[in-house]
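User: quick one, fold this
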Amino acid sequence: MLFDFNFFKNPENIFITLLVFFTLIQLFYHWYYFARILWKKSFDNNSKADLPVSVIICAKNEYSNLKNNLPEILEQDYPDFEVIVVNDFSHDDSYFLLKEFEKKYKNFNVVHLRENVNFFEGKKLALAVGIKSAKYEHLLLTDADCRPNSKLWIEKMAENFSDKTEIVLGYGGYLTKSGFLNKLIRFDTLTIAIQYMGLALANKPYMGVGRNLSYKKSLFFKSGGFTSHYKIKSGDDDLFINQVAGKNNSAVAIHPDSFTFSEPKRNFSAWFRQKKRHMSTGKYYKSAHKYRLGMLSLSGGLFYLTTIILLLISNQLLTFLLVGLVFFIRTSSMLILFYYCGKKFNEPKLFLYSPMFDIIMVILNPVFALSNLFYKKNKWK
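Assistant:
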């Protein structure tokens, strides 16, 4: 016989087979999907976009962020654009600040929502009002706490549009600060970007981030906007893209000037609430996307679990060597991936922490997901 069924009578052999299987799944995702980011050119061929763009920002009690970040957006080096801020029922001094900006900048418009009649959940009403108010077809969305990486942000996002392209997925990172939590937040953000951009480059787009996202106004209205998920507080970015993105209508912006960066959370409880809110939408994704992401997450967790089980149950040197070799291959693959992707996204040093942070996130992600089962009230502000 070519196959000996007695091989699987030994539990150790079963776990070795499982370890190799989960490792192969991980390597497949690394080098079939995510490595596409490495091959994509960051720099264009000196082409310059000139299509009109409407930048839309929704703000609720964001006085300080608007004061610090709006000038960076209003003073972009781009020939034809407008900036719209939807002041979503703020009770701070945002109204007076925005009035001052309106006097100073001719391409700046403000929509004030004065009554709390939001039948949409989260910021979806504010964003829908902003989109309806936009006078241009190409929309560029960001948040009040986001700052463009350069004065060419609009240009480097807009140049990715073509006749077929209706969506451009951008990178929204977090600023580098001191401390363990900041590194973990940046690692998690980089991991998510590698996943959604890598899959988009493989013609399987499934999400975008509202900190840096562009799409056509006509796409929003022909798809029904947020009506299919209006009762869900989050999802104005990822659920909408999950609904409308196809293999031929999406592009990815990797030029460094196309990035935005935000202030990260300063304590674990604030980040915990943010992560819960972000993860609350995953169950509404299309089945194919849930399966693909589930396989990635499950194989990663089971990779570590089978490794631990083998180290506990085995007393054979050959098994320890085999486990060590498989662990080395998978970890080396991750280090290489995060090193080169990190360089693409202005995070060149995070790869050094990737083995440790990968284990931490394998533990934390199920905690975030389970917490949403018991407490579902996630406000956007």
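User: anything notable?
Assistant: Residues 10-38+288-372 form one domain.
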